[in-house]
Specification:
Layout: H1 7-18, H2 24-31, H3 35-47, E1 67-75, H4 80-91, E2 96-101, E3 108-114, H5 117-128, E4 134-141
Antiparallel strand pairs: 1-3, 1-4, 2-3
Helix pairs in contact: 1-2, 2-3
InterPro entries: ArsR-like_HTH (IPR011991), AsnC-type_HTH_dom (IPR000485), Dimeric_a/b-barrel (IPR011008), Tscrpt_reg_AsnC-like (IPR019888), Tscrpt_reg_AsnC/Lrp_C (IPR019887), Tscrpt_reg_HTH_AsnC-type_CS (IPR019885), WH-like_DNA-bd_sf (IPR036388), WH_DNA-bd_sf (IPR036390)
Pfam families: AsnC_trans_reg, HTH_24
Domain HTH asnC-type: 9-66
Length: 161
């Protein structure tokens, strides 16, 4: 996909990662294009799935989600069917904000938010631990967020820039 991304596209993506609410005129001005080519490039990036959507970035603490944890999960079986079944169940859990299939000594890494430690304990013991196929769970609590996700590093997106 990176070979399909032009230098002008990179500038557009950088600008939209910084501010997804830019008007087309403001975006065009910021990236040095006229409005029509800017609009066409944005539409193309959306249609090809490079831009997958627009969202507000929320402060989790300000909305009452004081606990951030990562949970490494091992499942009983390493079959693709079992992994897909586990993933399908995890997708429906609101507390799980991200889930990754990983290599190493665990099968999945879950990023979980919760209002407080009591709510986390209830979720972990009453919901997550009761999912079938879980062999082992290990939780790591975040004490302080040093660098939260703030967009992808676009300098790697295209070697022609």
């Amino acid at each position: 996909m990176a070979n399909d991304v032009e230098p002008a596209d990179i500038r557009i993506l950088e600008a939209l990662q910084d501010d997804g609410r830019l008007t087309n005129q403001a975006l065009a001005d910021k990236v040095g294009l006229s409005t029509s080519p800017s609009w066409r490039r944005v539409r193309h990036l959306e249609e090809t799935g490079v831009i997958q959507g627009y969202k507000a970035v929320l402060d989790r603490k300000a909305i009452g989600l004081g606990v951030l944890a990562f949970i490494r999960v091992k499942i009983d079986s390493h079959s693709e069917e079992e992994a897909e079944a586990f993933a399908a169940e995890v997708i429906g859990l609101d507390e799980v904000v991200a889930c990754y299939s990983i290599a190493g000594d665990a099968d999945f890494l879950l990023q979980v938010v919760s209002p407080d430690l009591d709510a986390y304990a209830d979720f972990a013991m009453s919901t997550l631990r009761r999912l079938p196929r879980i062999k082992e769970m290990q939780t790591t609590f975040v004490l302080k967020e040093i660098k939260a996700f703030d967009g992808l590093p676009l300098r790697f997106a295209d070697k022609r820039t």
